[in-house]
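Dear colleague,

Thank you for sharing your sequence with our group. We've completed the structure prediction you requested, and as agreed, I am returning the results in plain text so they can be pasted directly into your records. Please verify that the sequence below matches your submission; if there's any discrepancy, let me know and we will rerun it promptly.
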Amino acid sequence: MDLFSASEAQRKDGGAPLAWRMRPGSLDEIVGQQHIVGPGSPLRRAIEKDTLHSFVLYGPPGTGKTSIAQIIASMTHSHFEYLQAVTAGVGDIRKVAGAAEERRKYYQQQTILFVDEIHRFNKGQQDVLLPFVEDGTLILIGATTENPLYELNTALLSRMKLYILDALNEADIKQIMKNALQNSDKGLGQLHVKIDDESMAILVQASQGDARTALNILDTLNNSYTSPDGHLEVNPELLKKITGKLIIKYDRSGDYHYDTISAFIKSIRGSDPDAALYWMAVMLEGGEDPKYIARRLIVHAAEDIGLADPNALSIAVAAASAVQFIGLPEARIPLAEATIYLCTAPKSNSSKIAIDEALALVRNSKRITVPAHIADSSHSQAARKLGKGKGYKYPHDFGGYVEQDYLPEEIRSISFYNPSNNGYENNVRKFLQSLPNQNKK
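Please find the predicted C-alpha cells below.
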C-alpha cells in the first residue's frame, strides 16, 4: 500500500499524525499556492478536466507538493503510479513504463507517474524516463525541494512545465492551525484547545512557512500536554519547551545556500549594510561555515570595490584571518565589521573588467611575443647577441616616468584598465591621464 492508497485510511485513523490527517482532500482545501491551484489557474483547470501535462512542483518542504499529487490521484481518470526517488531504480521505472504502454494500447488509459523527491534520481535514471515522457507513454509529475534547473537534465526539464510553490505566509499557517483546531473529524476539534496570540506567533515563527512543521508542533503539544478531560492551554513557555531554539532551514549545499549568499553579496554591492548583515545572520544561524563567508568578502572586496578603496581588500583579508584565529561566536564581529566597511566603501569593478578583457585577448591571440627592449637582459650577452633589453629606458633615471611602449606592437593602442571616478580610483584616473602615452590611447 503506497502513499496515495493509504492516505484516506490514515486520515480516518485517529492515531495517525495530525499532519497526515489534515492533508487537504480537494483543491479548495489547499491553503496558499493560489497562483498554482486557485480557481482559473492553468494547473487547476488541467486537473479538473483530466488533461494533465508533465510538470515539476518545486518548493520548500510543507508547502503542498505531495497534497497536490494526492488530490490528482483521487480526481484523475488516468491510472496513477507513485515512486519514491530515494528507493526506486531503473528497473522500477521500466516496469511502470511497460505497464503504461500496455494500458494505453489495450484500454486507451493514460498513466500518470508521480516521482517524489525527483532530484534524487541520477542522470541515468532521468535518461530512462525521457523517451517515455517524450512519446506520451507517461505523464510525469515530479516533486522537488531542490532547484530543478540544476538537478534535472535539460532534455527532461524542457519537456515539463515548472510550477513554483512559495513558503506559506503567516496568514496561511494561522489558517491551517485554525482548521486543525476546529475540525472534529480529522483534527483536534473534539478537544478544548486554547492558544493565545503570542503563542500563535511563536508557532508561526517556528514553522518557517512549513505547514507540516506547524502541525507536528501542535500534535506534539496535544500528545504531551492535553489533560485527561481533553483540555489544552497553549502558552509561550509550553511552546518553547517543544520548539526550543529556532532552527533556520538552511541547506549549506542546496539552492537556498546559493540564493542567500547571492542576496548577501548583492546587498554589499548595493551599499545596504542592514540587508547585508541580515543575510549574514541568516547564514550564521543556519550553520554556514564562517570561512566561506570570509572568502566571499575577499572576492567582493577585489571584484566590486577594487581601487575605489584599496583598504577594502586588506579589511576583508584581516577578517578572514580573524575567523581562522578565533572562530565563532566571536568571529561574527570581525565579519560584521568587514561587511559594513565593504557596504559603505565606494564601488568600482574596473580591475575585474580589466583582467577579464586581458585574458580574453590572450586566449584569442595567434601569437604572443615580448618586445625585445623589455625582455630579460640579465645575461651578459643578451643585449649584444639577442638584442634583449636594448633601448630600454629605466624610469627612475627620468624622475620616475618616461614614455615608452610595453605592449607588443600589434596591440599597442589597446586599453584594458579604465578607472572610475569613485573614491581613491579617481586619483588613479587623474594620474594616468596626466601621462603622455595614456593620452594617445
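Summary note from our side: DSSP finds 22 helices and seven strands in the chain.

Kind regards,
the structure core
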